[in-house]
Amino acid sequence: MKFLKVSLAMLFLIGVLFLFFQALTGLEKTSIEQSPQDALKQKFHQNPDVYAWVRIDGTRVDYPVAQHPTDDSYYLSHDLDGNETYYGAIFTELINTKTFEDSVTILYGHAMVDDSMFGSLDYFADWQFFQDHTVITIDTIDHRYEYDIVAAHPYTDDHLFHNFQLGTKSGLDEYLDTLKERVDTFGGAYRQLAVDSDRDRVLILSTCDAISDNYRYVLTAKLRRVTERIDT
User: Fold this and answer.
1) Is 208 a catalytic residue?
2) What angle do CA 171, 127, 210 make, to 5 degrees?
């Protein structure tokens, strides 16, 4: 009889704990459903330099994007906690605003041997992978930006923004007009998509190339859609 009472007490306690955790889980789900922007904010790093999140399906690119307020080279050698590291962080330079409304936005990151950071961008060197994975997604607190990938290829280790004068219409026109030529020259993949420098916004991802320190690997994409995030 004593054993039966103990068993019943144990079962009762287990049942109470189960109901408690079910209720707690339900509250967590409700909280997330009621505040999608709060959930997104939790995903962002606490570092105030972080203002966006970049993701490419099929790769290891799934990272915050930062911009240092004074030093363009800071995130080449520091992580988002301010620690000196060899892998750094994904970042933009001060030449770009944080709104993704510039004609051209360039994201930089190291190509790590374990494919972290931008180390998996060279997956696009495989033609089938390039065909199957076509979109770069960038999230901010207020908006989602989806970009169609136009080209992926190695290129000389020049500063693209300054070399092509991408802050000017003529410079952007030259960059876009010679894009397929660069793909043909350096090897890579190209998708026949019309890009209008007057109307379209361009995104470039740039990283070091695994083959040579004298080259970079570059993805070029055009903005397809902007979705406003609405708190519900």
Assistant:
1) yes
2) 70
